[in-house]
Amino acid sequence: MFKVLVSDPISDLGIQQLVDAQDIIVDKQTGLSEDELVGIIGDYDALLVRSQTTVTKKIMEAATKLKVVGRAGVGVDNIDLNAATERGIIVINAPDGNTITTCEHTFAMMMALARHIPQAYAKTISGTWDRKSFLGVELRNKTLGVLGMGRIGSEVAKRAKAFGMEILGYDPFLTQERADKMGVTLASVDEIIRNADFMTVHTPLTPETKHMISTAQFQVMKKGMRIINCARGGVIDETALITAVNDGIVAGAAFDVFESEPPQADHPFLSHPQIIVTPHLGASTIEAQENVAIDVSEQVLHILRDEPFKNAVNMPPVAASVMNKLQPYFSLGEKLGSFAAQMATQAIQEIRIDYAGDLSEVDTQPLTRYILKGILARHMGDEANIVNSMHLAKVRDLNVIITSAPSTKGFTNLITVSLKGQNGEEPRVAGTLLAGYGERIVRINDYSVDVLPSGHQILISHTDKPGIIGNVGSLLGQKDVNIASMQVGRKQEGGEAIMILTVDKDVNKDVLSALVELPNLNKAQEVVLV
Ligand SMILES: NC(=O)C1=CN([C@@H]2O[C@H](COP(=O)(O)OP(=O)(O)OC[C@H]3O[C@@H](n4cnc5c(N)ncnc54)[C@H](O)[C@@H]3O)[C@@H](O)[C@H]2O)C=CC1
Ligand SMILES: O=C(O)CCC(=O)C(=O)O
Predict the structure, then answer these.
(1) CA of 157, nearest ligand number
(2) Whose CA is closest to atom 1 on ligand 2?
(3) Which residues belong to the active site?
């Protein structure tokens, strides 16, 4: 049974699939302090948040069972991603569900700004019929600058076209082709700042975007421009903005987000007649809240059930086409990593993974994560997983070498995992996915084999002499160890050889010690693959 904690108000309809799942218990506890969360998080396998809960390192450290933090929304600036990655906790978000809603809020803000709607409303309901103070401007024929042309910025641009606006867009990943398709003129930040009548930001808050609009930018802006922030507080410098409004550069500003939320009661935005504000309502519609909760719940279920999932923000994104191709190899890759690590008797210094055949045509990074997990889990257990395996290898200064080659010596695909031990030991294992037969180990060190990578195996190094197979069989029989299958590999008659036996149960140390007492038997190791 998995336990899921919902610590922010999240749509009931959206999380219904979690509530209905037979293997999930959902607890809703909102408004918890950091210490309260630290006190209970150890019981939970998943945590679902919106933007109110700040998921700190301290919380992650207490989260001994936590596999996933699900953010019902886009921005993950309330989650310590580094701490999550270090602990192997997957962080997922719901990037698509609130795009339209936030875009529409941006438009609502732009129109409210152009026509002074909040100010006029307040005055009218206070009993003053004032038509002179609220002369507005049209959007038609105005230039709209959009900084950040991702999901929301692009939707804003689309709607602005319908209002007859000219659009200047900047985004480090905006191509000429996409800009042309949207009818947006590609521009630099400087060109946008100098020419926009209205400007809206739709970037995440990063070290690069923090205060990207500040005093220097306000000083060269068109006098009387209007500016909107429905992205993240801090992209526009709040102090510099107040000065720009007071200096007559900015005619009006509309902010849904603040550098610190909620803002202090004496925050200058809250009393400025030319600044309108909303309390981070960008994503607050019934539709968006259902969408993001459904999306995030679906992925949390997949993660808890060890099924393929998407929208992880602390792992690089993988194209669906690449994922489809790699997914069948994940289990084989992890087993090869685990097999090689169990063969190693010395501290590992270097890991080498050679991809060949079909696998040389795709970005194998996600598969590498599984192989590294298989290797590291040998000593680190559940602490190593596909989120942190690369990070763990890096912080341990393990040299990871990845190669890729089209030829496979007869297989359509081949993965070879080689480890370099401290004193020169080099265990090596190779596997393939055979059409119609599934996973196979086809090479152990220099020996060709054909072994199903599953269950309990005994790996024996011996000298190829008559009687050895019989001796091993008799000894295992005496010790009540049933042999399911056996493979022998040798390079030449009478030389060094290996034997790999699949047995029906755990083999204890006594059995392994007895095996190495047999004549011509050099080494016996147990390898367990689950
Ligand atoms: N007010 C609210 O309630 C909501 C706010 N948001 C916020 O809106 C922002 C945008 O969301 P989406 O469009 O869904 O994200 P997105 O990831 O689709 O788009 C963000 C874009 O910003 C661009 N970008 C990054 N650095 C930049 C820079 N220095 N200059 C120009 N562009 C840059 C990226 O290339 C990307 O295309 C996020 O910060 C998100 O958290 C999202 C939903 C609701
Ligand atoms: O949960 C919310 O309402 C905040 C939405 C938001 O800011 C986001 O999705 O980035």
Answers:
(1) 1
(2) 50
(3) 232, 261, 280
Q: Using an 8 Å Cβ cutoff, are 43 and 65 in contact? A: yes
Sheet holding 428-434: strands in order across?
Answer: 399-405, 348-357, 413-421, 428-434, 438-444, 447-451
Atom number in ligand 1 closest to CA 154: 13
Q: Are residues 104 and 92 in the same domain?
A: no
**Region at 436 (left for phi over 0; alpha for psi -120 to 50; beta for the rest):** left
Number of domains in the chain: 4
Q: What CATH number should be reported for the domain holding residue 52? A: 3.40.50.720
Closest protein CA for atom 39 of ligand 1: 204
pLDDT score, position 155: 97
Q: What is the CATH number of the domain that holds 406?
A: 3.30.1330.90
Shared domain check, 495 and 352: no
Encoding tokens for residue 322?
Answer: 């690449």
Any idea what the CATH number is for the domain that residue 498 is in?
A: 3.30.70.260
Range of the domain at 64: 2-96+287-304
Question: What is the average pLDDT across 423-434?
Answer: 92
Contact of 497 with 488, CB cutoff 8 Å:
yes
Q: How far is the CA of 386 from the centre of ligand 2 (A)?
A: 27
Q: Residue 368 Cα, ligand 1 centroid: separation in angstroms?
A: 30
CA separation (Å) from 469 to 76, 140, 466, 518? 59, 88, 8, 11
Residues in the chain: 530
Report the predicted TM-score, pTM, of the whole model to 2 decimal places.
0.78
Which of 149, 203, 210, 311 best tests ligand 1's pocket when mutated (most atoms within 8 Å of CB)?
203
Question: Over pLDDT 90: what percentage of the chain?
Answer: 81
Within this chain, do residues 402 and 526 fall inside the same structural domain, yes or no? Answer: no
Choosing from 76, 170, 171 the residue with most ligand 1 atoms within 8 A of its CB, the one to mutate for a pocket test is 171
Residue 282 lies in a domain: no
Q: Is residue 354 pLDDT above 80, yes or no?
A: yes
Measured in angstroms, how far is the CA atom of residue 243 from the centroid of ligand 1?
26
Ligand 1: centre distance to CA 205 (Å): 8
* Beta-bridge partners for 169: 146, 186
Same-domain pairing of 473 and 524: yes
Per-residue model confidence as pLDDT tens digits over 372-404: 999 998 877 767 888 888 888 887 788 999 999
Mean pLDDT of 326-337: 95
- Ligand 2 contacts (CB < 6 A) are 50-51, 73-75, 98, 280, 282-284
Regarding whether 228 and 330 lie in a shared domain, the answer is no
Domain match, 71 and 105 both:
no
Q: Assign residue 127 a region: left if phi > 0, alpha if psi is -120 to 50, beta otherwise?
A: left
Q: ipTM score here?
A: 0.99
- Name the residue of 98, 103, 106 whose CB sits within 8 Å of the most ligand 2 atoms, as the mutation to test its pocket: 98
Check whether residue 372 and residue 446 sit in a common domain: yes
Whole-number Å distance, alpha carbon 268 to ligand 1 midpoint, is: 25
pLDDT band at residue 315, thresholds of 50, 70 and 90?
Answer: confident
